[in-house]
Amino acid sequence: MAKTERYQNRIELIQGTLDMLILQTLRWGAQHGYGISQTIRAGSGDVLQVETGSLYPALHRLEKQGWIKAEWGVSEHNQRAKYYRLTVAGKKQLAAESDRWNQLSTAIAALMNPGESEGPA
Amino acid sequence: MSWKDVFSRTRRDRELEEELQSHLAMAVRDRMERGEDADTAAQAVRREFGNRALIQETTRDMWGWTWLERLAQDLRYAARGMRRSPGFTAVAVASLALGIGANTAIFSLVDALMLRWLPVHDPQSLLKVKFSGPIESLSYPVVRVLDEQKEIFSGVAGYSGWTFAVGPSGAIRNVRGALVTGSYYETLGLNPTLGRLLAPEDDLPGAPAVAVITHGYWNRQFSRDPAAVGQSLRIGGVPVTIVGVTPPGFSGTNVGEIADITVPIAALPLVKPEAAGLLGPGNSWLRVLARVKDGMSVQQAGARLSAVWPAVSQRAISPAWPLDRKKGVTDAVIEIQPGGTGSTYLRNLFGKPLLVLMGVVALVLLIACANVANLLLARSAARQREMAIRLAIGAGRGRIVRQVLTESALLSMTGATAGVVLAWFSSNFLVHTLSNDQLPIVFDLTPNTHVLAFTAAVAIVTALLFGLAPALQSTALKPNPRRRSFLLPPLVSVQVALSLLLLIGAGLFIRTLRNLENVDPGFRSEGVLLVDLDGRRSADTRELLDTVRRVPGVLAAAISTHTPLSGSTWSDPVAPAGQPLPKKDNALFIGAGPGFFETMRIPLLAGRGFTDHDANVAVVNEEFARRYFAGRNPVGQHLSGRVRGDAADLEIVGIARNTTQRGLRAAPYPAVYVSYFQLKGDVQGTLEIRAAGALSPLAAQVQRAVQSKLPEASIEVRTLSAQVDRTMAQERMMATLAGGFGTLALVLACVGLYGLLNYGVVRRTREIGIRMALGAQRKGVIAAEVKRAVALVAAGIALGLPVAALAAKGIRSMLFGLAPTDPTTLAGAALVLIAAALVAAYIPARRASRVNPITALRHD
Questions:
Q1: How far away is chain B from the Cα of A109, in angstroms, using its nearest Cα?
Q2: What's the angle, vertex CA B708, arms to CA B707 and CA B711, rounded to 5?
């Protein structure tokens, strides 16, 4: 029953959006996988829950692309963890994706709420 | 992607495990900090986390496959495919094994004969020194003079292969060795396994006789006993002290010959007094390897040597020589060439034939490639469904091409492996057939890195050759049924053309050998035994001859200085009395004893042969009579000449028929026979013994009879036929190998043709069925199929004939008695090909005619 509940509360992330969110999260410094998922969850007011089944493949995909780099480190609770941080290429990628996202969300917002739309000129 | 990726794979797996584990730990900790108890927290986290194995799996997918894993996957798939169709695999692998094996076999001979460095220190810097011209040998005094030029050369080695008579009286055996100058081993830069190697002091007149033996000889004769050094070998009846053993792997600098015992040249007068004359300036018999001084280039060395040569060469000429002979040495142009691969007479004899054979086996391999490509094309048509499905579910074209090429590579590697084994046996066998007892040819043909690299390269090129077209065709995006076999018929025609080429080559070489065998040598070689006497003139040669004549079964026996086609001849200047003596030697000389012409069955055209009481008489051959006594009867005329350096006046007592002395291909050359017993000094001699009946039992008896008279000599009995045969070794090799490869090519081409037609019949079963249902006769169906075959073969022959005519010009010098475009050979080869092709075509044609219309129409 808990499972059903969770699924109802979750918003399916559009393909590629997770990658952007991860990169965005890492903008402020290196973070481990658990930290990233917690940051996204807290930052979205518990609306976006990143599943581990999506998070780790995404992290490893981003690492292979060369956008993030992984290093083993130790957490504040003395727990060994793998920390990811943005690379220069990753920063560029993030800039490009957030531009695209802004365009897309503005466009979708305009379509969904035609009355309120002023049009971005 | 690299090897590191592959090996780090398990490490990455472990790291992923730890990463997920740390995620779990942190999640549990957070929950516990919010007040949950440990069990509840762990349970909740696990639930949230989901299927851990699946997460690992999908994450791992993100790493991507490394090329090696993909290769392993492709190989597994290819191996499965090969196991599934054993018939196809067997034919393909066998074709490739034969093709690649033939290439490897010939290449390993080329490598052994021409490419391999001598196993000495820094072989690349070894240089060959010779006078300009065809002769590679220099005299002992010339080599000594070269060795004295210390400001040019850091080392000069002169050497010659030699057969030593080794052992105690009555049990003497011939051992192949070499006579070398004192600096030989120093120049080569070898270190002894045991004792010491020869030094310049050993090569001084009066130095104690010493010898160095090879590691192999030490192993065989002394069982690696260290006490061998210091022992004496009895050579030519004289004790010679073994001073050292050469390193393993070294067996002399004459490629293809083993030199188990090396003796300094200065010791030659001790171990073989009658050959002491070789040390003089008049005999050029030593090959020379040298190294120039450090820091000097070969060009500089050559320039300095030619500057000093006119002065220093004075020491290498005899004051008694006529001026032009002196000038031959002092004005000689000295050539310095790379010499690190050693030297061998075998290179002159087999160099070109081996290169021609290299071309032949390359063609065989091309035919084999075409065959496998054929098979693969036919198979790729059958696999079109599979390929279409794989393309449809998203496999990239490149991926499938790679997969198909992997299959080709696996086939070709399997073929290559079998080929290497095949080559090892066949090349050893080949060397064995070329070798003879007198002068065994010894090559180490164990596959070495050169040969294996060559084979690997051939296998890769082969795989690309036969694999690429089928690979591209099978992945063509629009499977077009008409395009499906557009490559097959031309391939078969090319195969036919190539095999025609090889058949014509085989025909030319086989007929050359026939022609040589049919040359009338002017004597009868069958039934004659030969025994070389070691040259020490014994007073009882006549007695020896009598002993031999008394052996039961001996019809006649005689002695002569030279025997036909032995490879050794003697020439001197001679002219009819009263005419000026030519400057250059103009006739072959043969010293022959009484009964010589009868024993050899050389017909006398006029006059008589030699008797026991001859003095200053000669028998001339037809050619001599024709050139110098045109139209006159030479018998009774006198000749004046210089025989072995002495002026001689000879009365002609007979005319003998021409015999081939120097080679079966050589044109008749003037020859003068002089009486063996009137020659002065030490003369080499060979007994000729004509026998009635089987030769081998008689040979043993003759051996015992001669040995009993000459206990100090090594007596070996051989046959004249073998000696004649040996002169055809090159032609026999070409005839045998070209014939073998031609046959192989024919079989491969027929298999290709058969495969193509058979495949066509299978594909057109429905069409044939319809035609038969509509009333076509079985005969008609057969005729139609055979017509297709004939068309393919005709195209191949049309393509092959002009190419063959062109290619045959390149081997003109190797042929004898026929033109490269010999019409009989060309037509014969074409006929053989057509006949074989018809047989290959008949089987599928018959199969076509047996098609049952009912079954055929149900055929999908």
A1: 32
A2: 65
Please name the residue of chain A whose CA is at the shortest distance from the CA of residue B26. Answer: A34
Cα–Cα distance measured from residue B383 to residue B476, given in angstroms and rounded to the nearest whole number: 12
All structural domains of chain A with their residue ranges: 2-112
Query: Cβ(B545)–Cβ(B557) under 8 Å?
Result: yes
A53/B29 CB distance under 8 A: no
Tell me if B27 and A53 make a contact (CB, 8 A cut-off).
no
- Tell which CATH architecture fits domain A2-112: Orthogonal Bundle (1.10)
> Model confidence over B366-423: pLDDT tens digits?
999 888 888 887 777 777 777 777 777 766 777 788 888 888 889 999 999 999 999 9
pTM, full prediction? 0.75
Phi, psi (degrees; rounded to nearest 5) at B427: -70, -35
pLDDT digits (tens, 9 = 90+) for B584-629: 889 999 999 999 999 999 999 999 999 988 889 999 999 999 999 9
Query: What does the mean pLDDT of chain B come to?
Result: 88
CA distances (Å), origin B567, targets B663, B664, B715, B839: 8, 11, 19, 47
Q: Do residues A75 and A93 make contact, with C-beta atoms less than 8 angstroms apart?
A: no
B22 vs A3, A57, A81: nearest CB? A81
At B217-234, the pLDDT tens digits run: 999 999 999 999 999 999
Please name the member of B19, B51, B62 whose beta carbon is closest to the beta carbon of A57. B62
Residues of A in contact with B16 (CB under 8 A): 56, 60
Q: Tell me, what's the ipTM?
A: 0.83
Nearest-angstrom CA–CA distance, B662 and B815: 17
CB contact under 8 A, B54 and A82: no
Q: Choosing among B26, B56, B66, which should be mutated to test the A contact, i.e. which has the most A CBs within 10 A? A: B26
- Are A38 and B23 within 8 A, CB to CB? no
Q: pLDDT tens digits, residue range B449-505?
A: 889 999 999 988 888 888 887 777 777 655 454 444 566 778 888 889 999 999 999
Residues B612 and B594: beta-carbon distance below 8 Å: yes
Cα–Cα distance, B531 to B549 (Å, whole number): 13
Task: Determine if residue B16 is left, alpha or beta; phi over 0 gives left, psi from -120 to 50 gives alpha, anything else beta.
Answer: alpha
* Ramachandran region, residue B51 (left: φ > 0; alpha: ψ -120 to 50; beta: rest): beta
> Distance, in angstroms, between B23 CA and closest chain A CA?
5
Alpha-carbon span B743 to B502, nearest angstrom: 8
Q: Does B20 sit within 8 Å of A56, measured CB to CB?
A: yes
B197: nearest Cα among B166, B155, B136: B155
Instruction: Find out whether B489 and B756 touch, Cβ atoms under 8 Å.
Output: yes
* Local structure of B744: helix, strand or coil: helix
